[in-house]
Amino acid sequence: MAMLKEFIPVWQDVFDEASTEKKKMMLSTLIDVVYVSKEKISVEIKARLKGFLGHLI
Asked: pLDDT band at residue 56, thresholds of 50, 70 and 90?
């Protein structure tokens, strides 16, 4: 498992180094919809990701 961990990229680093277009693409795979009002901003995560993350969100 430790050996496998070495080959998996840190997604924060990948995102930080990505172009604006690639960042948009990455976010579109995670975010379903964004609601903006005077009081708050709400972000809904895509359902399949919610199932994957389970109790973490």
From this structure: low
| DSSP β-ladder status, 41-45 and 31-36 | antiparallel
CB 32 within 8 Å of CB 46 = yes
Q: What is the pTM of this model?
A: 0.59
Classified as helix, coil or strand, 36 is strand
* Residues 22 and 34 sit within 8 Å (Cβ to Cβ): no
Give me the numbers of helices (H) and strands (E) for the chain, helices first please. Answer: 4, 2
Please give the angle made by the CA atoms of 12, 17 and 23, to the nearest 5 degrees: 75
Closest CA to 23 of 39, 9, 12, 36: 12
